[in-house]
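Predict both folds.
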Amino acid sequence: MTPAELPAPVALCASDELLERGRAHVFDVLQYREPARAFALRFDGQVVAYLNRCAHVPTEMDWQEGEFLDGDKRFIMCSIHGAVYDPLTGRCVTGMCGRMGLTKLDVREQEGRVYWYPSRDTRPAFED
């Protein structure tokens, strides 16, 4: 698939809606043509995004909608399995996820907005 065949970037939210180590913006995607959820959050000044799917067992991880960080707000933690991930890389830090990590999505900030750039595998849930 060439870049010209990929969907256009998707505006997710205003940059100021993602507070440092705060609630994530959750959105719907298609992962390999199957419905899935994803999330974007701000950590150490960077916006990052991942599929909302634990690497241990593919289940959604948030404690409450948009709440992914542990009590100290240092790591992303699966509310079901307790697997712990580095927020900036998605790499498994501890837990049953072994060498697996979160599926990272391409997000960028431009002109006060956060945009998600779909890939061949992860596309918008609703395309025009």
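Second protein follows, with its predicted structure tokens after the sequence.
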Amino acid sequence: MSLHIEQRESEGIVILDLKGPLTLGHGDSELRDTLRALHQSGKVNIVLNLKEVSHIDSTGLGTLVFGLAKLRKAGGRLALVNVDKSHLELFLLTKLALAFEFFDDEQEAINSFFPDRAVKPFDILSFIQHKDQRNSIRT
């Protein structure tokens, strides 16, 4: 199974809905090519909807870092929305959670591109605390 990418736009912000694995040979090159094409066409503010991403490996993370760096260099931004808890753990373990912007819902991610709009930040600490509480219950 390969990664399927659907592109749409809201308020001038490109939203990419990803479906399937973001792994070596199964989505990394498709996403990299899509982000490169958007960048070349001047679209540098992008939201990635990861709700239906089934798996992310190190190559997939590398692709996300590539996109983030490319867009930032062009004066744009990359926001991640609907990140699965297991995928968020991967971002935390690799310390990449510090580099990316995470949002609970799509409208919050879109609002983050507009400085005059209030944005509710994604609370990684509540995720960590919830995880710690689960682990203490098991022991």
